[in-house]
Amino acid sequence: MNKTKQYPPKEVCKLLALSYRQLEYWVLIGVVKPRLEAHGKKNYQKFSQEDLHFLKEVKALTDEGYLVSRAAEKVRKLRHQHTPGQHPIEVTF
């Protein structure tokens, strides 16, 4: 079984220079859908490396002035045009 690293929201925010509130909003509007990991009665969000790559690209476009929904749409379209597996396995920041 291939286990890839999963990132908690706090680490995602630190790596991408996002506020926690901003990340939560992006999750709320469906920009990214983290995996939920249950621990007792609580569920914790975990983001994959692919999620991080996607969010990094979206953030770059929002930094250029795109609305987050348009940026996410643009990144999805660009990724759909390319063959799978073109993104590096490890996130480097």
Give the class from helix and strand content and strand pairing. Answer: mainly alpha
**Sheet of most strands:** 2 strands, antiparallel
Helix content: 40-55%
CATH architecture classification? Orthogonal Bundle
Uncertain ranges: none
Radius of gyration: 14 Å
Tally of contiguous helical segments: 4
Q: What is the quaternary state of this protein?
A: single chain
Strand order of the largest sheet: 1-2
Q: Strand share of the residues?
A: 5-15%
Tally the beta strands: 2
What does this structure look like?
By secondary structure, the chain is mainly alpha-helical. The chain has one domain (9-81): Orthogonal Bundle (Multidrug-efflux Transporter Regulator, Chain: A, Domain 2), CATH 1.10.1660.10. Helices cover 49% and strands 11% of the residues. It contains 4 helices and 2 strands. The protein has helices spanning 9-16, 20-28, 49-63, 68-81; strands at 35-39, 42-46. The protein has a two-stranded antiparallel sheet with strand order 1-2. Helix 3 crosses helix 4.
Structural features:
93 residues; mainly alpha; Multidrug-efflux Transporter Regulator, Chain: A, Domain 2; two-stranded antiparallel sheet; 4 helices
Layout of strands and helices, then pairs:
Layout: H1 9-16, H2 20-28, E1 35-39, E2 42-46, H3 49-63, H4 68-81
Antiparallel strand pairs: 1-2
Helix pairs in contact: 3-4
